[in-house]
Amino acid sequence: MWFATIFRRKSSTPPPLFDEAFLRRLERLSLQAQRTLRGTPIVGRYPGRQPMPATIFSDHRPYVPGDDLRYLDWNVYARQEQLLVRLGETEQDVAVSVILDTSRSMAMGEPDRLRLAIQLSGAIGYLALAHGDRVSVLAGDRPSLIFGPARGKMQAVELFTALREVTPTLRTDLVQAAYQIAQRSSRGGLVLFLSDLLTAMPMERLALILPAPRWQVMVLHILSKTETAPNLQGPLELVDSETGERMMVDLDTETLAAYRTAVQNWRSAIARQCATYGIRYAAIMTDWVLERQIIPFLRVRRFLT
Q: Which domains does the chain have, with CATH numbers?
């Protein structure tokens, strides 16, 4: 994907990711995790699929020595003199893995995509930590863990510190990151990719590496108006942000119209591929305001609830 880049000097000290008031409001939400995911029972807040001894009744099984007597159905015993254990859904945690694309193209645009992706990673990671989930974040040229796996809201400071130290890299192998996540957890979990998708990420391979229903995959496509609707004209030298390759072009009205059509077709093709393989997809623009536009949008798209 070609687009022109204007380099601007940036401050060496990035501003804080969030303020405390935003984090308190964020805690009212939760990730939209599928019921098919398997976590650690009686730790998190998501309903589990596997029936276990519980006070909320859905089924029975015979009592076996060692069962907690609190879950015996004494009403049944009084009528039938049978010891039965009440079964029901218990709450569980979910393993949440965030894969952050740090390739050079993510640092382009105004505002740059990487800054927004870092903020989204922090917001999603904090939300998961606040609700007792196990959180991991992978980033870098050859993606590696920069945070986690960790659980508990007290780990949020470490998460934000790790994210503020993220810098652009030459490239990011998103498929390799998916392999790492799959190898780390045999139980599965929720995996969220944040990328401009200029790095190759074939959806069919992701579906094989992280198969449903054990895994739930979400993709947040980070886009900038610099690439979707460039305000450029005349003779220009374009630089491929991923490879550094250069191309001389003469942009007129017809060429720009063809480019915008190609970008729209590209986005539509990605959305169709995600839908085909059961991957949840949403496109986020870098000029959207996080709390007023992005969070409500993610609730509508059922990323958050």
A: 20-37+94-300 (3.40.50), 50-88 (no CATH)
pLDDT of 275 > 70? The answer is yes
Query: For residue 66, what are the contacts with CB-CB under 8 A and spacing of at least 6?
Result: none
Q: Which residues of the chain form beta strands (DSSP E)?
A: 41-47, 52-53, 59-62, 84-88, 91-92, 95-100, 134-139, 144-151, 189-195, 215-223, 234-239, 246-251, 280-285
The whole-angstrom separation of Cα 233 and Cα 251 is 5
Cβ pair 246, 237 in contact under 8 A = yes
How many angstroms separate the CA atoms of 88 and 169, rounded?
Answer: 48
For the CA atoms of 192, 139, 103, 299, what is the dihedral angle to 10 degrees?
20
Quote the distance between the C-alpha of residue 82 and its chain's center: 48
Scan for tokens 């390759």, then name that residue.
245
Determine which helix (DSSP H) or strand (DSSP E) holds 158, and give its type and residue range. Answer: helix 156-164
Report which of 104, 115, 156, 111 is spatially closest to residue 132, judged by C-alpha positions: 156
Task: Note if the pTM is more than 0.70.
Answer: yes
| Residue from 174, 147, 167 nearest 158 by CA | 147
Residue 160's pLDDT is: 94
pLDDT of 141-175, one tens digit each?
A: 888 999 989 999 899 999 999 999 999 988 889 99
Q: Where do we find the tokens 């303020």? A: 19
Do 215 and 188 form a contact (C-beta atoms < 8 A)?
A: yes
Backbone angles phi, psi at 176, to 5 degrees: -60, -40
How far is the C-alpha of 98 from the C-alpha of 153, rounded, in Å? Answer: 17
Distances (CA, A) of 297 to 36, 148, 281, 282: 24, 28, 12, 9
Beta-carbon contacts of 236 under 8 Å, excluding residues fewer than 6 positions away, are 4, 248, 249, 250, 251
